[in-house]
Design a protein that fits this description.
Length: 341
């Protein structure tokens, strides 16, 4: 398949700039993956499509406030760092801008001295290896000075940074939110569990590579970014029991989906484990775990629209996206949701 096969025309006005309140008031497009039939609902209606004995798998990763603004110690020149991934204790690979100000051995200060840093190395790809120093705990200091690394298509300021976190987030480490989970409220989760639907947690720390465009014509030639995941013992057990009793495994988001499918591909089943995955799911992939998927609407020609096409069928998903545009659904991170079962 060609990357251009996954293009669709999206009016700019449909790119959601701010989250809705309450979280579960967003719209929900329900897609039947067998026949392509579509229903238009609200997210709080999702409970009507979940059955006793089903299991939702959520990604409990929490977004780091990874965008920090500082100044060069010698000159006061302004600089921005975006933390990408940890190298070792308080040493991170970062994007820096303007890059010419962040040469090796240059030092910077953030938040009136709450944190300082030194550039240790400039990598071949232009990223910087940076060591950070602070009197406080590193993550506590980051929480004081950092801002959410919102995707580039969101241009409005986020007033409440917690709205770019799921209500069940707890494991710090993502550079972007697992956005399908943003629609859940504590009250909705309580109703779901009261109906006899189990909830299992996995952790996959989302990298900024999730926004990286596919730059090759032939989909199969694209190489995915690597992301760290963890599947706890209780979740692996829950999945096994759910499958054995005839229940469905429904992933909340493409990150939960990639975690489960990566583990099942590697081990033949979902077992307790942790590691890194570069799994790339596109049409032709044979799903090993999933029976349903809750997801947002994804960018044209992205690896994520390829994943949902693999799960629901290419024609079904491209038609669903056309309908969503015609019906003026809200798209991307703060947009509306789909339920594919």
């Amino acid at each position: 398949m060609k990357t251009s096969d996954f293009y669709y025309d999206l009016p700019k006005k449909l790119i959601a700039q701010t989250p809705l309140e309450p979280r579960d008031s967003s719209r929900l497009l329900k897609l039947d993956r067998k026949n392509g039939e579509i229903e238009h609902k609200h997210f709080y209606d999702i409970i009507d499509y979940l059955c006793e004995g089903d299991c939702l798998i959520i990604n409990d990763s929490r977004v780091l406030p990874a965008r920090i603004y500082g100044s060069k110690k010698e000159t006061g020149a302004k600089v921005e760092f975006l933390l990408l991934k940890p190298v070792k204790n308080n040493v991170w690979e970062c994007l820096a801008g303007p890059g010419k100000k962040a040469r090796e051995n240059t030092e910077f200060s953030f938040g009136d001295g709450i944190m300082t840093c030194k550039v240790l190395e400039v990598l071949e790809n232009g990223n910087r290896v940076v060591e950070f120093f602070c009197q406080d705990n590193f993550y506590a200091a980051l929480d004081k000075i950092g801002q959410m690394p919102l995707p580039p298509y969101i241009t409005e300021k986020l007033e409440n940074q917690e709205r770019y976190q799921t209500v069940y987030s707890r494991e710090l480490g993502s550079a972007a939110a697992p956005t399908a989970g943003l629609h859940f409220t504590p009250e909705l989760l309580d109703k779901i569990q009261a109906k006899g639907i189990k909830i299992g947690r996995v952790t996959l720390h989302v990298g900024l590579g999730t926004f990286r465009p596919v730059k090759v014509d032939d989909v199969t030639k694209h190489r995915m970014h690597s992301e760290h995941y963890e599947v706890p013992q209780e979740t692996a057990k829950l999945i096994k029991e759910t499958k054995a009793s005839g229940g469905r495994i429904i992933a909340v988001g493409t990150t939960s989906c990639r975690t489960l499918e990566a583990v099942a591909t590697k081990y033949g089943e979902v077992i307790p484990c942790d590691g890194f995955t570069e799994i790339f799911i596109y049409p032709g992939y044979s799903f090993k775990v999933l029976d349903g998927l809750i997801t947002n609407f994804h960018l044209p020609e992205s690896t994520l629209i390829m994943l949902v096409s693999a799960f629901s069928g290419y024609d079904n998903i491209m038609n669903a996206y056309k309908v969503a545009v015609d019906e003026e659904y809200r798209f991307f991170s703060f947009g509306d949701a789909m339920l594919i079962i």
